[in-house]
Amino acid sequence: MMNERLKLAKQLLSQEGLIFISIDDNEQAYLKVLMDEIFGEDNFVENFIWYKSEHKGLSKTTSNIHEYILCYAKNKYVIQQLNYFRISKNGYQEINDFLEKLNHKYLKDDSDHQSSLKNATKEFKEYLRSNKNLLSGVLNFNNFEIDSETNKFVVYSRGDVGGLKSENSNLIKNYDVLHPVTKKPVRVPENGWRYNEETMQEHIKKGNLIFGVDETTTPNFKRYLNEFKNVTQDSVLKFKSTGSDTLKKILTPKNSKSENLFPYPKPVSLIKNLIKLISRKDITILDFFAGSGTTAQAVMELNQEDDGNRKFILVTNNQNNIGEDITRERIYRIIKGKGSNGETIKWEFNKQTKYLENNLVNVFEVKTSKLTVNDFDKARELKINAEENFIKLNPEWKKKNNWNIYYELSSLSPYKDENEGND
């Protein structure tokens, strides 16, 4: 079944597409081999480690606190040309929001800039000290000044202006940089300067270098936060398994006892992070093991947060009525703010937007039919019906032959060989 689904997934992926598959340690090695066979080793992107829980100390050997998320591209060369796998620094948006508050508070047209800078700097330093966890990715951007062009506060960190270590002396950039006060050459870094002399002079004119009290110290480079908004995604994804808590808030009525509704649902934050690794906001996300519907919620929340136009397609076999009672009901409730029978729920998106009302979801029920070898009339009827519906779903679909239709259908509901497992 997995083999057919993956082959179909590859066909459906665009040239810019990615596939993410969550798997535990028991099957990770086998799945990696299968993915290499179907997608090609050259299209392997990453084997992400999902760090999902804290050490509980209950195991007699080791505590398993992670799973894997395999990522492959349809065409790795294509995605390497795109701005994928870039994420905002942790705390970047929070810092900018705080700076905007300081701008409104201190930088008025008739304000004393020196006094404003002093008071705002003090308030900014206190904000950093009080929010270390929230701002963990930007704590080194702790220097503060007023941008003369925009008349707004900006923050920066002190960066090294030294060059890269090289055994080739011809690659080391050595020249004199004069101290602005003493007019004497400053100390040159051990590996020379990072920039050529012309570029260095441009940075000096723009005020991008921080000089010491005299020429005996090497200057530092100003690294402004707005120039380092994004960083490359790490191979370790740290998202705690809060999926069950979210699902209970959505599906458990208010003032009712929580139930174990679905085993191990993924946290919405994890799926949102994976989707955001693709820079475009107009993509279609297909989840053909829909489970509890976390992907649907993640897509709708992201669109609400960044004005995206992403779409999702979920597929489930409705085993034990999960598709109707869990998946569809979850989607209905986060859009409507109540259950399909009018039940009140505990979940809210946020205080301003309690529910995700601006979403339209179509639900389709796929029917299966069993055929005997000699049932030609039924086969002909199903074939015609399949052709018509394939074209409705995809106007560009073209029939190659009757087997083409069979393979399309069997990938959705693979048969089990009666001789499977027998010698």
From TrEMBL:
InterPro entries membership: DNA_methylase_N4/N6, N4/N6-MTase_EcoPI_Mod-like, SAM-dependent_MTases_sf
Pfam annotation, one family: N6_N4_Mtase
Domain DNA methylase N-4/N-6 as annotated: residue spans: 2-331
Keyword Methyltransferase: yes
GO molecular function terms attached to this record: DNA binding; N-methyltransferase activity
Alphabetical keyword list: Methyltransferase, S-adenosyl-L-methionine, Transferase
Superkingdom classification of source: Bacteria
GO biological process, one term: methylation
Gene3D superfamilies associated with the record: Vaccinia Virus protein VP39
Name of the featured protein: DNA methylase N-4/N-6 domain-containing protein
Organism annotation: Mycoplasmopsis agassizii
